[in-house]
Amino acid sequence: MEKKSGHILNASSNLLGFSLLIITSLKITKISGNTHLDEFAGVACIFFACSCFFSFLAIRSKSEKRETRFETIADYLFLIALFCIVLAVIIVTVRII
């Protein structure tokens, strides 16, 4: 099986920063009270951070079985966080239109 922990770590950390940027911009513009956008971005931040953690553990793991398990967990957490970001983008799109 191809190791993808490094890719997950890179993408998760970048999207974690993007999610934090969304939350910060919503707080600065005081829009966060009107939508659920900051909640979705906050949940995405938690999942991206956990995905980073598990992908790092997979990279550092000595056991092949544990590495595969950590990588799978990181992969699913990344997918859930990505879904939260997609929901946030849909909310922004509907709000603008």
UniProtKB/TrEMBL annotation:
Keywords: Membrane, Transmembrane, Transmembrane helix. It comes from the Bacteria. The keyword Membrane applies. The chain crosses the membrane at residues 7-28, 40-61, 73-96. This is Uncharacterized protein. It comes from Chryseobacterium soldanellicola.
